[in-house]
Amino acid sequence: MHNLCVAHRGASFAAPENTLAAFRQAMAFPFVKWIELDVQLSRDKVPVVIHDFSLERTTNGSGLVKDKSWDELRRLDAGSWKSPRYRSEPIPSLAEVLDLCRGKVRLNIELKTSGDMYPGLESAVLRQIVARDMEQEIVLTSFDQQALRRVKELMPELCTGLITDIRPADLSGRLSALGCSFLSMAYPKIDARLMAEMSEQGVTVMAWTVDQVGIIRSLASLHPDLMVCTNRPESWEQAMKRKSLIGNTILTVKRWLIR
């Protein structure tokens, strides 16, 4: 099918986000071809998979990710907040996630940083990717344009993408200047005109984050190459089935009319 399904932080409606449990559940859906995840650095420069800069929301820890060693982070419970079923589910390292997903599903890795918050983040992430020969299975994305520039300086050939929840007038020029061939955009900002412009520029677009079947179907109708990022892969499946059913019905009616 077109309109590829991207599992946002894994199957994060059902399982604790950005954990191996969430990634395994996402990979259990045969139509999930991409997983989106977030990466930061521990105090001792280990790339770790977690969204928030602080630990309180998704773990039993407190404080900032950047102030904790990998040994401290890996001992935290990142699952109980979601359900007792996931008690003691740990924060994964990027290395663990890459090993799980290599050759099975492609990854949209968001570099969670701002300014000089994480010196060396880009090179630490790239080392893990290159060590596994996964350059063709990855896109590195970020809100932080400096992070994207640093990635291109270190590895010009790697696919990078800008994340934005606004639609600036100079978007095409900004993407070109950054060397980005991927755009991760809040779904309300996406329309057919944007898709036509990005398609002409050779930029892949991903809409985030949408769980409602009707909205997924509406987005899919804008362009067949628009990727849809969702916490609920089952909603994507329902939307695509309905889209297929509607298309088949229209085709049947057309055939009947031209008899």
UniProtKB/TrEMBL annotation:
Could you tell me the superkingdom of the organism this chain comes from? Bacteria
GP-PDE domain sequence ranges: 3-240
Xref: Pfam families = GDPD (PF03009)
State the InterPro entries in the record: GP_PDE_dom (IPR030395), PLC-like_Pdiesterase_TIM-brl (IPR017946)
Q: What is this protein called?
A: Glycerophosphodiester phosphodiesterase
